[in-house]
Amino acid sequence: MGEVAYTKTELLVTVAASLLEDGRSAILGTGLPLLAGLLAQKTHAPNLLLIFEAGGYGAQVPQLPISVGDSRTFFRANQASSMHDVMSSGQAGHIDYGFLGAAQIDCYGNLNTTVLGPHALPQVRLPGSGGAADIGSFAWKTIVIMQQDERRFARKLDFLTTAGYLDGPGARERAGLPVGTGPYRVITQLGLYDFDPATARMRLCAVHPGVTVEEALKASGFELLTAPEPNETTAPTAEQVRIMRQLDPTGLILPH
Amino acid sequence: MRRTRVLFEGRGEPLGWHDPDENRAWVRDNKSRALVDKRTTVAEAVAAYVQDGAFIAVGGFGHVRVPMALVYEIVRQRKQGLALAGKTAVHDCDILVGSGCVTRVEAAYAFGHELRGLSAASRRKVESGACRVVAENSNAGFQWRFLAAMMGVSFIPTRHMLGTETLQESSAVVIEDPFTGKPIALLPACQPDVALLHVPRADMYGNCQIDGILVEDLELSRAARRVIVTTERIVDPETIRQRPWLTSIPFHVVDAVVEVPHGAHPCNMPYLYFFDEEHIAEWRAMSRSEEGAQDYFEKYVFGVPDYAAYLERAGGEARMEALRSLEAMES
Question: Which of A94, B18, B318, B321 has the fewest CB atoms within 10 Å of its CB?
Answer without folding.
Answer: B318
